[in-house]
Amino acid sequence: MRRFVVVSVLLVTSCSAAPSRAADPAPTPTPTPSPSPSRAHSVAQHKKAANVYSHDAPGMLSPKVADLKPRVYVPNSESNTLDVINPRTYKVVHHYQVGRRPQHVVPSWDLKTLWVNDNDGNQLTPINPVTGRPGRPVPVDDPYNLYFTPDGSYALVMAERNNRLDFRNPHTMRLIRSINLPCRGVNHGDFTADGSRFLLSCEFSGQLVVVDWRHHRVLKTLGGMNMPQDVKLSPDGRLFYVADMMADGVWIINARTMNRTGFLRTGRGAHGLYVSRDARRLYVSNRDEGSVSVVSFAKQKVVQRWRIPGGGSPDMGGVSADGRQLWLAGRYNGVVYVFSTATGKLLHKISVGQGPHGLCVYPQPGRYSLGHTGVFR
Predict the structure, then answer these.
(1) What is the CA radius of gyration of the chain?
(2) DSSP, residue by residue, 7-46
C-alpha cells in the first residue's frame, strides 16, 4: 500500500525517480543544561523576547486584514479549481476555475493579495481577499511555491521542475534574477530569525540548500535526507524542523551551523509543519497514515497523535486565527479536514475538488507574510 502512495506522490509532483527509504535517523542531541536559579529569570525573558512568532498570537490581526471575512482557500491540483470555504458554516461558498495544477495559495508580503500558484499553467492567479474573487493571471514560469523576503523586497518563486530560485518583483512578479540550485525539486523553506539566510528543501535529491538571498548565492548544501518537505523555524530561532516524507519524521537542524542535530519519528509520510498560536507546539501532518503528530518545542518530542477515523491523507494547510482549529487538505480524498487543537478530535470533513493541496486560512495574525500557505512574522 505504501508503494502505491509513494508512486502517486511522484506522479503528482512530476518526479521520475523514486527515492530510497530512510537510513537510521541521527541521534537526538544532548539536552542543554538548565540555567542556574540566578539566571533563570533573565533566560526566560530572553526566550520570550526571542519568540519569532510573537506577532502571530490570537487577536493580533494587522489593521490591513482585521475587517476581512474569514475564508479558507483550497487549490484543487487535479481539477484545476479553487474552492472557497466559509469557516463559520463549513460550507463551500465559491468555486472558481484557475490555471493548470494549482499547488498552493500564498498571502503576499503586504497581506493585500492571495496568489494561487498554477504550477503547470505557468502563472500566478491573484485573489482579492476582500471579495474572495480571482483576478487576471500573471505569467510566471514554474511557480510550485512562493515565498517573500523578510523586508518585502523580493518574491521568491520555487521553480521546482527547473531547479531554480527565481527572484521577482513582489508586486508585478517581473523576473529580476535567478539562482540555479545544486539540487532537484526545490519546494519549501523558511528564514533564520535575523532574516539573512533562507533554508530550502529539495525533495527529489534529498537535500537542503542554504541561500544568502541578499547576495543571491548558495552558501551550503546539506545531503543525507530522503524526501524533505516543509521547513519551519523554532520559536527561539535556534532550530529548523524539516519534515521528511520518506523518513517518516522530522529532522532537526541547527540554525547557526546548518547541520543536522537530531530526528523525531512522527508518522508515515511526514509532510506539513504548523506552529500553534501560543508557539509551544508544532503540528506535523503525516500524509501516508492519516494522522497529525503534536511536537513539544520545549521537550523536542512527540506528545500527542491525532488520527483521522477511517484514515485519510492530511497534507498542507494552516491554523485558524484564534488558534482553535487546524485545517488541512486531504490530498488523495478530495476533502478538507478540520481538527480541534484542544482535543485533537476531527470536527469536520468538507468535500472539495480533486487533489486539494496547499490550502490557506485567511486572514491570520502577523505583520507580514513570508509566503507558503501562511508563514507570518
Answers:
(1) 19
(2) HHHHHHTT--SPPPPP-PPPPPPPPPPPPPHHHHHHHHHH
Nearest to 271 by CA among 207, 336, 155, 357: 357
CB contact at 8 A, 124 and 142: no
Listed in sequence order, the DSSP H helices in the chain are: 2-12, 37-49
DSSP 110-171: TSS-EEEEETTTTEEEEEETTTTEE---EE-S--SEEEE-TTSS-EEEEETTTTEEEEE-TT
pLDDT by 10s per residue, the chain, length 377: 433 333 333 333 333 333 333 333 333 333 333 333 333 333 333 344 489 999 999 989 999 999 999 999 999 999 999 999 999 999 999 999 999 999 999 999 999 999 999 999 999 999 999 999 999 999 999 999 999 999 999 999 999 999 999 999 999 999 999 999 999 999 999 999 999 999 999 999 999 999 999 999 999 999 999 999 999 999 999 999 999 999 999 999 999 999 999 999 999 999 999 999 999 999 999 999 999 999 999 999 999 999 999 999 999 999 999 999 999 999 999 999 999 999 999 999 999 999 999 999 999 999 999 999 999 99
DSSP structural state of residue 368: S
> Identity (one letter) of the amino acid at 80?
N
C-alpha cell at position 65? 486584514
CATH code of the region 51-362: 2.130.10.10
For residue 308, the 8-state DSSP code is: -
* Residue 200 vs residues 148, 217, 289: alpha-carbon distances, Å: 13, 13, 25
Among 359, 346, 197, 345, smallest CA distance to 272 is for 359
Angle at 234 between CA 229 and CA 237, to 5 degrees: 120
Task: Give the predicted TM-score (pTM) of the model.
Answer: 0.87
